[in-house]
Here is the input.
Amino acid sequence: MIELYHYIHCPFCVRVRMAFGALSVSYKSLPLPYNEEKSLIEMTGTKMLPIVKWQDGSAQNESLDIIKKLDSENKLKLDVLDDQERVDELNNLLDRLGSPIHNLVMPYWIYTQEFDETSREYFQKKKEVKRGPFKDLMKNKKDFLKILAKEIMSFQNYLGPFYKSETLTIQDIMIASHLWGLYVLPEFQFPLKVHEYLQRVKQETKFDYHEDFFKDSNIREF
Here is the structure.
């Protein structure tokens, strides 16, 4: 069986989990603590998740490369990523959403069940190099929420009912995987249209954010 090594919170890992569900590909879910390094380097030469270990024993990271290999029939309309203008537009959107989202949610993520004291300290130290002290992120929460609210209001104008599409595409998986982390934030409430959009993506991808902590089996069958 295909094995997926991933972090629960990581949007790039969530991308692959959503793709597995959307394509009804069964896999073994193997969430790892954030401070795990040795096994990842042994598999692919670098500390980067997600990693998929294919049935032939080979291992691969980079979320979009994994999804392209999974989706040989182009069910997720991966060909939209051949249009550089659309790719630039999508990446720009993800950058505008991703920055305030991660500034807001990272100080909350570290107190979820995914982290223990050691991995929490490791994660916080790594992320504070780029984003500054988490305590300062918390102090500036209102500013990040204001920036994010503006971006979300603009984003919802492109939903019809999916992002610039009547059906689910890879773009929705890339966007929703970032937005989903906001459900951990008590101060944020999605506009109804965006919440309904995320629930449609959830249904289409059979996605359950924290299922790995509550199911007896780590086998995901569709």
